[in-house]
């Protein structure tokens, strides 16, 4: 992808000041993998352009123990921290004493991005750290947030489960998948799209392939020239957006279209669930069924097969109550870890492939191959 370098710099500087509340002379800590877009944008260029010190840390949030990040916050008096919901869910399984062991008085807020932030995780870590948890939504292609709470411009309340409102420079719309028309009434699901032109910092083409850039990003919204995020969302009556997942993460169960993200959020609300991934698996009768893989806060609760069945039934009852019986997963399997990339993204396509007996494809970015092997053993 190609960007205008000067515009990219403007976007990063504005983002650091207006969204991430960083000031010159302060210390910034992004826990992201250096190889991901956050690596160069918000570990190196963004903080340094803004006159801040920045911490480069490579490693897991639980090695040598689950207090490593917070010890760095105390040592370097970190004022702004940026991480991912996945990391918060990993910490959810650890001893909560590590979250209060260190002096975090310098920390103004913890920002989370990279995938939808579910309300149970946001509520948990916000309470554990006693710090504001601020979600924001953007893509590699945009280089800086599409949606956020711009407290550096005008303070506004956060809503757990929402990354906030459209950031200045982005003309964000919700589009009806079937008709291509803009959705104006609140709380109705649509595809998140942006009217052009995109603001500074966003991609301008795909390197060496202008046609692909146009056909991929600007031609999928029913003959309208709009940038598609390929994400589902809804907007409430206050203008806050809620991300429901990728448009290709929709499964068709007996004619009912269900978002895997919605099922994951429901399962996550069970008090013993730390992390969960839901995938659609081919089924000869229903077309597809939802299959869930959950990591527990307390694995001893499923020490025996009867315990596992009882907890599975509990979780299914939660989904029934929140989303209806049609959204109930065909099964809930309990695993010790989910397959992820080194930057923390859950490899849902690989999980789906294993469940369907297909080749999982390129797994060079996977952090722990044993995680996928565990799933293969469960479904074989």
From TrEMBL:
Molecular-function annotations in GO: propionate-CoA ligase activity
UniProt-listed InterPro entries: AMP-bd_C, AMP-bd_C_sf, AMP-dep_synth/lig_dom, ANL_N_sf
Pfam families registered for this protein in UniProt: AMP-binding, AMP-binding_C
AMP-binding enzyme C-terminal domain location: 262-345
Ranges for domain AMP-dependent synthetase/ligase: 7-197
Domain of life, source organism: Bacteria
The protein's name in its UniProt record: Propionyl-CoA synthetase
